Amino acid sequence: MAKTTKSKTNEYTSDEIQVLKGLEAVRKRPGMYIGSTDSRGIHHLVWEIMDNCIDEVLSDFANHVTIRIKKGNIIEVSDNGRGIPITMHKEGVPTPQVVFSMLHAGGKFDNTTYKVAGGLHGVGASVVNALSDWLEVTIHRDGKIYTQKFENGGSTIHRPKITTDPKKLHGTTVCFKPDPSIFSTTYIDYKQCSQRLKESSYLIKGLKTEIFDERNDLHEVFEYSNGIVEYVKDMTAGKEKLHEPIFISGTYNNIYIECAIQYTAKTYSENILSFVNNIRTRDGGTHETGFKTALTKSFNEYARVKKILKDKDPNLDGADIRDGINALISIRVPEDVLQFEGQTKGKLGSAEAKFAVDQFVSEKIKFYLFENGEVANLLINNALRSFREREAARKAKEQVREVKAIKTKNLNTNGKLSPTQEKNPKINELFLVEGDSAGGSAKQGRDRLFQAILPLRGKVINAEKTRSEELLKNEEIQTMIYTIGTGIGSDFNINKCNYNKIIIMTDADTDGAHIQILLLTFFFRYMTGLIEEGRVFIAMPPLYKISSKNKVEYAWTDEELKEKIDNLKQYEIQRYKGLGEMNYDQLWETTMNPQTRTLIKVNIEDFADADNRISVLMGDNVEPRRNWIENNVSFDNEDNFDLAIAEVDEDE
Ligand code: 1YM
Question: What's the pLDDT at 556?
Answer without folding.
Answer: 85
